[in-house]
Write a structure and sequence with these properties.
The structure holds 2 protein chains of 2 kinds. Chain A is mainly alpha-helical. Chain A has one domain: Up-down Bundle (F1FO ATP Synthase), CATH 1.20.20. In chain A, helix 1 packs antiparallel against helix 3 and helix 2 packs antiparallel against helix 3. The longest helix of chain A is centred in the C-terminal third of the chain and has 33 residues. Chain B is mainly alpha-helical. Chain B has one domain. Chain B has 9 helices and no strands. In chain B, helix 3 packs across helix 4. The longest helix of chain B has 35 residues. The chains are: A mainly alpha, B mainly alpha. Chains A and B meet through helix 3 of A and helix 1, helix 7 and helix 8 of B.
Amino acid sequence: MTSAMAAAVAILAVMPSALGEALVCAKTVEGMSRNPEMYSKLRTSMILACALVETTAIYALLVAILILFVGGK
Amino acid sequence: MILSSNIDDIVSRLGDTSAGLSGETISSLFVVGILILLSFYIAIRAHFQDPLKKPKGILLLAEIGVNFFDGLVESMMGRRYRGFGGVIMGVACYLFIAFIWGLTGLPAPVTNLATPLSLGLFTFVLIHANAIRFNKFKYFKRFVDPIPLFLPINLISMWAPLLSLTLRLLGNALAGWTLLTLLYGGIGSIGDVVIRFSETQSMHVGSFIAPFITPVLHAYFDLFSGLIQTTVFLFLTMIFVANEGPEDDEMIEELSVKGGN
């Protein structure tokens, strides 16, 4: 039970990460609409930036998985 | 219960060295073996190829790949690092195949801590070897920068790139693997409720629904995620390594000065 609660708290870190990803996408779409010629370049950078922003969420997920299955013992 | 013990098993083996070669390590050796055989085959084909004829088949593919990675390295890292194309291409091939290896049903190499940690250590060594190569004894200045009081902090922050690269790969692969395992287990249980041959069946007969639902998730978590993480890993490696050397502009200026004389 305690470890489940701890995992739930740890996974809270995905919230700001999701917000960050939303910001990345919003700004990219804005840039694309202003300058459609840059579409393909912006898309590549957007996917890269998304993957980088996602890292925090992945850390949180890893910590949660480790707490659930290893830390609980 | 079967499911949780399954995840338990793979997570508990993350740092365990006593259990002998794990399935992931053997998969990893398979990937390396396939790549070595393929590269030898391409090398032999290339050796006997008439340079005046157009390359065909796998040779053409290999040429496109080598050209692409050489161009990528030159545009990302500068002309000084032109020789890094081969290293980057090798890591790219290994990492991508290691990611999509899970599609075969065998254990994916990246879900074991050993594989991402090895790749992270590879980048780490490359970064510091390059720093020593370009800065010589000035390399040690970074540990007492800006004042000697920062030595412990600098010694700890030295490991940050290694940790972030390793955990990014491991987290991604493990998250996808966990989600798909949970989904397969769930689908099996749901199917068992619908179709029930006997009270004590041990097999998940209901898993036959899975092929209609999971391919999309496999495409995302194995193919797409693997491609993106491979790209991110390589870009970060290239940027970290290129950061250690002097700026590219200086070298171009040097060349132009020499040319002027």
